Backbone:
């Protein structure tokens, strides 16, 4: 039975709507009274497991998504620019996040937000060890042991386990957010999540 | 230059998220201070023109969409059940809406809401002339001339023109909602639309 008193936030640094949602998680936690657990997963693995594909492959949809992202960023008051590397394979980044989860899970949200900023605001490369180290330092994590454990079997296992858990709970895209058995897909479900938690509380 | 003082609401009766959004349009008009113009289009034509496809073809997505629809309906306080005919070719229904637009556009929103209710609340068939006549009567439209003009060339032309206009303005799905050059896709963008209109007013 999934925990109904925690919000599980599955995300990938390469997902623009994960970025938007990640910046709102402190507010969502406050508005629901529930803790948010940041859960790094591999969006590419979710696509593979479910037969889904990049939404931005359709030209009309890609154009709209850029307009939509820009509008949400303005609405939230956060910086946004489409990264010149997009779409990017984020395997190393997502493993670095799992390494951080293993070393000190309390620093994971700040580390994730720093890496989101690298990719979605600074046109940086979040798979690069220098950028990973910089984000770790910003989040109060010691970069050396973190980078050393990116390729550890336990780190790889954690990323696989997180991805498998999200797929088992119904994920087919990112962000995938759960409160117990309730699934919410996307940044655009955050206010509905808050209202649903309040109604079922 | 598109009219920035009107909300253009392009919808198809066969689209569940069009149904959700349609029930909120009176509120959105009130919250923005802008009139909403109901614009029947053919979602199948939009898919064809843009290379898009039914979102519910992915099993994991179909499961989530049913959960999501049920949740939104509860949130809005409106009835919802998945129609046993879904997905349905709505060509005749969308032409009937265009016939209504030609006969008396002021009755179009009520007529559309009645047809949405037939399909998404009563498991009825909105392509059936008896159901079309019933919905017309509910909306204060005389059913006989309406049904007689469903197959008129001018009615068919209007449906094609509405669909072409939406595609030209960027649509690839439904509902597609426009305020001037701003495009909003989906029921889940209504609150963002309100905030965006207020910000740019």
Residues:
């Amino acid at each position: 039975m999934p925990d109904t008193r925690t919000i599980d936030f599955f995300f990938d640094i390469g997902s623009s709507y994960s970025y938007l949602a990640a910046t709102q998680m402190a507010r969502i936690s406050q508005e629901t009274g529930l803790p948010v657990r940041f859960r790094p997963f591999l969006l590419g693995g979710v696509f593979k497991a479910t037969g889904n594909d990049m939404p931005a492959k359709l030209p009309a949809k890609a154009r709209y998504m850029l307009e939509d992202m820009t509008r949400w960023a303005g609405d939230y008051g956060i910086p946004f620019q489409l990264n010149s590397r997009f779409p990017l394979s984020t395997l190393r980044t997502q493993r670095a996040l799992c390494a951080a989860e293993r070393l000190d899970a309390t620093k994971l949200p700040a580390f994730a937000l720093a890496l989101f900023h690298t990719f979605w605001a600074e046109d940086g490369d979040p798979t690069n060890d220098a950028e990973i180290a910089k984000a770790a330092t910003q989040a109060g994590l010691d970069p050396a042991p973190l980078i050393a454990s990116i390729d550890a079997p336990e780190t790889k296992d954690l990323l696989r386990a997180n991805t498998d858990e999200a797929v088992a709970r119904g994920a087919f895209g990112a962000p995938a957010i759960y409160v117990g058995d309730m699934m919410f897909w996307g940044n655009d479900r955050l206010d509905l999540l808050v209202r649903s938690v309040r109604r079922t509380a």
The mean pLDDT of chain A is 96. DSSP finds ten helices and four strands in chain A.
